[in-house]
Structures
1.
Amino acid sequence: MSQRKGAMAAVTSSKHEEEMMELRRGPWTLEEDNLLMNYIACHGEGRWNLLARCSGLKRTGKSCRLRWLNYLKPDIKRGNLTPEEQLLILELHSKWGNRWSRIAQHLPGRTDNEIKNYWRTRVQKQARQLRVDANSAVFRDAVRCYWMPRLLEKMAATSAAQQVDPAALLHPAHIAAGVGGGAASPPVHGGQHDATSAPPGSGYGGHHQSYAVDPSPSTSTSGCSGSTPAAALPPVPCFSELSWVVDQYGPYADLDGAGAFDSSALGSLGLDGLDLGPADGDVYPDSTLLDYLNSACTGGGAMVTMMGGGGNAALSSCGGAIMGGHDGDYGPSSWRTDELCQAAARKLGDHHQWGGGI
DNA sequence: AAATCCGACAACCGCATCGGA
DNA sequence: TTCCGATGCGGTTGTCGGATT
């Protein structure tokens, strides 16, 4: 009985101990970061639970590890991802999927968390705008045939002075070597995370990295290969319903506001929800599938020319933006009519099959 | 000027895997 | 072989600041 009492007391005591420990959660304070950095400086990384217990931090080992690996580690690179890094992420993700840690190994200074966030906030956003699944073949092709070439262009523009061949970055050997992220670069601070002020280093500030003011324990603030875009175009569906576009308007159909193209005809095909591009006053992101489609217009196939103008209003008012315009300009854009079919296929969804010759 | 929305990112959580006892 | 703690990974959430209404 007394033994049992003793056991009960021990349990109570240990519970009390846990309560006294009351683990902190949420944003890290400057003091906590210093504690963690100092401890690691003395004892090295690893043994995170031991670290958590011995360092005086009221955090879990997991939390300490994450804080160190994602933020405090000296070689962490900050600032926006460079086009090279973005390209690598797209390329490696197409190979490995959501293997963030593995992808991060090829981007020195970047963490899996950062890459994962990039994918979710940038890439998946694009997929949403295109109304396709980010893991779908359609989207992968769009990335490969449109986004990657754009990045290559950016890289070419910015690296011309450095005499770097951007396409070479995609060479398997290059990737295998883990090159591409500017490995040798010192930590970069810029963008929203300008953290001239952020640790490691000292600073604090950055977008979200202002420290919690009150470190009180009770506070819980829970916190085609890229170089050959056309080669990997998705299969082109053949829609007999739309063949009239070519028949009637020839290889180049005008979708501008001049009235040459009767957009209401699309309605009769059940395509009235099809958004063909910018209407008057519409503001579109500068990177859209329309650019991709245009970039694909290298071979045969009829073209649909579209002027950003009132003529599109009826169309674009119907659906969300499947397509968008060029960088701030609503000048002429071209659609290959078979690509138009493709967009239509997306809109029609279940009723038609990709690449099937209907 | 205030309210609301949205993007970006830090941090947490649950699960899987690994390695030592 | 099994158990258990430590660690790693990927998904998700919470929070904040800037943009928009």
2.
Amino acid sequence: MSKKNKPTNQKEMSFIEKARRTQIVECAIETIAEIGYAQASLGQISKRANISKGVISYHFANKEDLLDQIAIEYYMAWQSYIAPLIEAQKSPKEMLRVYIESNLTFIEENRKHVIAVIEVVSNKRTSDGKFRFASDHDETILLPIENILTLGMQEGIFRKFTRSSSRVMALTIRNAIDGFTLELMKKSHLDVQEYTRELVTLFDKSTKK
Amino acid sequence: MSKKNKPTNQKEMSFIEKARRTQIVECAIETIAEIGYAQASLGQISKRANISKGVISYHFANKEDLLDQIAIEYYMAWQSYIAPLIEAQKSPKEMLRVYIESNLTFIEENRKHVIAVIEVVSNKRTSDGKFRFASDHDETILLPIENILTLGMQEGIFRKFTRSSSRVMALTIRNAIDGFTLELMKKSHLDVQEYTRELVTLFDKSTKK
Amino acid sequence: MSKKNKPTNQKEMSFIEKARRTQIVECAIETIAEIGYAQASLGQISKRANISKGVISYHFANKEDLLDQIAIEYYMAWQSYIAPLIEAQKSPKEMLRVYIESNLTFIEENRKHVIAVIEVVSNKRTSDGKFRFASDHDETILLPIENILTLGMQEGIFRKFTRSSSRVMALTIRNAIDGFTLELMKKSHLDVQEYTRELVTLFDKSTKK
Amino acid sequence: MSKKNKPTNQKEMSFIEKARRTQIVECAIETIAEIGYAQASLGQISKRANISKGVISYHFANKEDLLDQIAIEYYMAWQSYIAPLIEAQKSPKEMLRVYIESNLTFIEENRKHVIAVIEVVSNKRTSDGKFRFASDHDETILLPIENILTLGMQEGIFRKFTRSSSRVMALTIRNAIDGFTLELMKKSHLDVQEYTRELVTLFDKSTKK
DNA sequence: CATGAATGAGTCTTCATTCAT
DNA sequence: GATGAATGAAGACTCATTCAT
């Protein structure tokens, strides 16, 4: 069955098929993290995977399909790691702290994957030059943060946020987290604990009443 | 005389030479901003400049040279716009406010250039896969912010910052500013005034004693 | 036992084997007729047959073997449809009329198969670039027509034909019939009755004394 | 200037550009005639032209553009050879004779080109599997023949033709001529004079009153 | 100075074929 | 018998770079 028509339909995939795809995606992540998006050709990826170039084409409709998968898998792993930790918190303040902590922990433990996702996402444009993922990002990434802010405001713990100011706040938090990834790329011996503590303090202060 | 040996030595360039280079750099910026780093081939750039592909090769040692120039020119323009405004301020608090304000203003007025620089910098790696600009970034971009923070701390206006916490603070401020660019790419009708106000408030609170 | 050694030896084939081959050949015909010779990969054919690509390789020595089979089966079906109708005629004039009529009828009823055969035959070359089927064509396709012409000449019904002129006549008749197929491909609503009548008239006149 | 936007706009082409294109088109013709449409890759063509593969891509937007050019150039050469000869004739009967004669002569003198055109045209399909050139063919190739037939009928020299019967007649004439090309491919020592004479006789009889 | 032309390495993709299960 | 998986060669096309004019 061709992958052309249902590239992401995992329901009908055999176990071995899923394993292969996962392996290839992992190699793609490794490759992008190591040599960068621009240099990460299918040839480079297949070389690292010790497979023939054709295997990738066999399991993925095209390069875009493979690259998308990197983002999709990452998002799912991220989601299932972060969400329960947040939900376990009672106060918005704790939620925000845990959001920052868990994100940084997740990033540290999945360095290469995060790097690869960032490269893929930031290089992804539609044929008319517009960015893809733009609208997705707001709904799936920012909204949860904004919800925490709104909750904190309603409970009287956080300062007052308008629509627009909670959006800027959420963006800044997210940018701080994403920026941490880049910092981690440059300095692999970064003290994550400390970085986390500082960010928590910073946003604790900036959200306080 | 070929540019091979002295690609960035502007001293010996004739006026016409400089003009040509500037024109090409501008077209490169335009091109990258419009269609993205990956699609911005020398062919595309020369097409937008209405010149032959060879001209670029004549004036720049290679593509990398051209791309670097985008970052260099941007940094210089940025520097000469921001620096005097900061220096005109008396208190660290005002400096920080002006830093944020002037950066956002500068970005809004140079959208395409900023976008291009971000694409170039984030895709630039050395042949062994490491990021270039990494060390530059700390000294030229972060240090000035850290200096403001240190000053504010010494004057007793800002809270206490350790080496590491002022670094995280500076990074977060910078990430907020850079992130604003991306937001501006996605939503061109963004209210810059408002965004600026929110960021100033946010970092005012987070640096306060 | 692999088909490698006796790809066309139908004697030793089991019933199921024959059925499978027939099914695959039919799908190949369908595919070529629909998307053209160049696009008709084994993948496309197997997709239409709802079988795996490997099955084709299992039942046919190679792609060429499968393609040849299309021509062979067609020729046999054509032969057994046409021959008895011709033989049932008494006069050469009637034979010619029936030849034309029966060919056009056969073509109309086997559109896809004819199209596929034409595509296969016209794209088939030996490794040194020469056409295959070239010599076959003369003996199996043209000779029967020439025989009718000779007969008609001997009986004094047709005009005089030399070796060479009966060959040209036969070729022209055959070209008219094959050309009808192409016309049918372009205009599926062609009035076959009418087309037949015109051709019969045309060649009736051109063979008359 | 990219060939993408104006692949066939010959007005703006320099002399040297036209020469190169012509040379490449000629090599493409040679290649297709020799090894067939399916085997005629850009690599094969460039090899025969003793140029790098990239040169073809430089001068033609894509393979289709090159292949189309073969047909276009042929049609123009054919047109300018045939048309004046026909127009010089006074009676429809002579026109038909000259049409057949000049076509066969032209084909003999441009064997390879004709072969290439036939292969290109017969393999050309749109993305949905339909033939291209189909509608063109009727207007540019068949109409002129039909006009001769109509004229002959009006002058009382030819037998009566309805819309549909003149179409079939024209098709048959054209098929005879195109079929001659295939015959010439198979038997290069064909006596063209004789073939021509036979065809003229054949269609003379079949159009007579 | 500028250009058009050419190159050749490299990109993604397709495909006939093989093979272990 | 049948299949999914894998291969590797070949395909068209892109592009940074070089060079003669």
